[in-house]
Amino acid sequence: MVTEKKERKPLILKQKPMLQVIYALIPLCLAAVFFFGWRFAAVLLVVNIAGFFSEYLFARIYKNQVTSAVFVTSFLFALSLPPTIPLWIAVVGIVFGVVFAKMAFGGFGRNVFNPAISGRAFVYVSFGLPLTSRFVEPVWRNSNGFGGFSLWQASADTVTRATPLVKLAGGETIPILDLLVGNTAGSFGETSALLIIICGLYLIVRKTANYRIVLAGLFAFLIFKALLWTAGVAGTTDPVRSLLSGSFLFVLFFMATDPVSSSQTTNKGRYIFGAVFGLLVPLIRTFSAWPEGTTFAILLTNTFAPLIDYFLKASKRKAAVR
């Protein structure tokens, strides 16, 4: 009796949309090296290895393949970190994000929260000092034109430089050009607003990211921020500079559009999801102790995404019955 051998599945499940996200993130990774040195490559490598093995262990239990999405999570998480973050903290963060925000829910497609931002939130609340005092100025202006490609990392005496959001909150004015090109302190992937926009638009053109979430988020942010600024609310800042500062654009293009943890059932739901995120960020930035706000804003919006979809579906069913 002849028995057929079962075809062995590849170790990694290739997901074209996830690969498109990685392609869009590559320019930001190269920029991170240019701005802050080759240490980013080490952070990226360590995070990807730890993220892969974290998912691999659970995939064996679930008898599933490792998904390409885990590398997207790892890239996003690495780009969200301060340039001098200790490598062991980076490992702790990605393991938490993959295990507790993704695999504990059953793996890809079942997680409620974005794994990358969940890992970032965990290390932020657990290791506050390294996550808020490890920022440096970009090194590209003082490196004979080669930028960080000729350096391992910024020198130690530049640590604890203020980020643009901290400067704006303190009443300083930052040239918009500096915010666009990346001549500011910040996390690996958030300094150049122009490059983030270009890479984000690539995802929209490729239809990997939904433009409705992005548009709703942008308009909600600018309108609400402008209202607070015009009203003279204490703690608010210039809407345009605030938009270009920090990680708002990075999170909006690459995390708020996550097809799993965002509202994806209806176009109306996508608009609502994006608008909620866009409103929460200036609200947190203005009235809380956190100058950034995007981490908790996206987690809160992820929490309500299933409810948005549920109520929109229920409303649609009632309308059909009538």
Largest sheet: 2 strands, parallel
Mean pLDDT: 90
* Spans where pLDDT lies below 50 across 5 or more residues: none
**Element order: H for helix, E for strand:** EHHEHHHHHHHHHHHH
Strand order of the largest sheet: 1-2
Ends: how far apart?
Answer: 62 Å
The number of helices is 14
Query: What is the strand tally?
Result: 2
Please give the share of residues in helix: 55-70%
Radius of gyration: 20 Å
Shape designation: globular
**Domains counted in the coordinates: how many?**
2
What portion of residues belong to β-strands? under 5%
Structural class: mainly alpha
What can you see in these coordinates?
There is one protein chain. With 322 residues, this protein is mostly helical. It folds into two domains: 9-155, no CATH class; 210-322, no CATH class. It is 61% helix and 1% strand. The chain has 14 helices and two strands; from the N terminus they run βααβαααααααααααα. The chain has helices at residues 16-36, 39-62, 69-79, 87-101, 115-126, 128-132, 164-169, 176-181, 193-205, 211-230, 239-244, 248-254, 267-287, 294-321, and strands at 12-13, 66-67. A two-stranded parallel ribbon has the order 1-2. Helix 1 (16-36) packs parallel to helix 3. The longest helix is centred in the last third of the chain and has 28 residues, at 294-321. It is globular. It starts with 11 loop residues before the first strand and ends with a helix. The mean pLDDT is 90.
